[in-house]
Amino acid sequence: MSCRCDRALDRAIQLAREWDAELIAAHVIDPAKTGQFRFDRKPASWRRLPSPVDRMKWRLRRDLGTAADAIRILVEEGDPPEMLLEMAAREDCDLIVTGIARDETLGRMLLGNTLNRLVRGSPVPVLVVHDRAVRHYRDIVVGTDFSEASLQALLITAACFPAAALTLFHGYDVPFSGYLDEQDFKRDLGVMEKELGDKFLADERVDEPLRGRTDVVIAHGSPERLLSDYVEDHDIDLTVIGSHGRGALFDALIGSTAKTLLEMLEGDLLIVHYRPAD
């Protein structure tokens, strides 16, 4: 219920209206952070003591007006990330929307402990909202390592945002590339770009309309730096990353360089978890 969640709430309302979906506002009270003693132990006679749900409804209605009437509210007590994942599973949610952990002066994302555990443990996509919801997601970049997880991330993104322009982005770093012949390197890179992009989009699950609105960009260099620069230079609304365990783009970066990736990215981030076929 802090100001850090305002943008996430606004985006969730916009998406719920766009998809005609039910929106649940979930709030978890952490016992470890709840004060055990209060100075005023005898409230005034006129003071009402609403339940946590009633108080949350009052705050949402104060902030959102009549828009709050369409939101179902759940308030529970426990470890925030564990309880949020349990609530999402129990309610059969398709998407978890959350704000950033905190914001620095430069407006970069930071991966706090709750968000970190939420992202790692959620079987459904997690949308981390950083920007104001001033427009629909119109330009989306999907980070790819050309794996099945990346393809599933592309397909889910395309289904959720059928009117958006999509870009598949692959960044890679070649060891000792400085010792290679520059002209040969660029020529070989161009050939590889076309072959990988064509093969990836040739999958039978990618229909012709999706191919028509998807560009492929492959660049040499630090993946997190390249992706961040591309998002900023092209005014991207949403970045999508597919995750499928060790070796996936997000999971490969979640260790030593995950904080760098998230702190460098502008805009909102959607993490889509790979679900193997049964």
From TrEMBL:
Coiled coil regions, renumbered to chain: none
All residue ranges annotated as the UspA domain in the record: 5-130, 137-273
CDD domains assigned to the protein according to its UniProt record, in alphabetical order: USP-like
Record InterPro entries: Rossmann-like_a/b/a_fold, Universal_stress_UspA, UspA
PANTHER family: STRESS RESPONSE PROTEIN NHAX (PTHR46268), UNIVERSAL STRESS PROTEIN UP12 (PTHR46268:SF6)
UniProt family annotation: Belongs to the universal stress protein A family.
Protein name (database record): UspA domain-containing protein
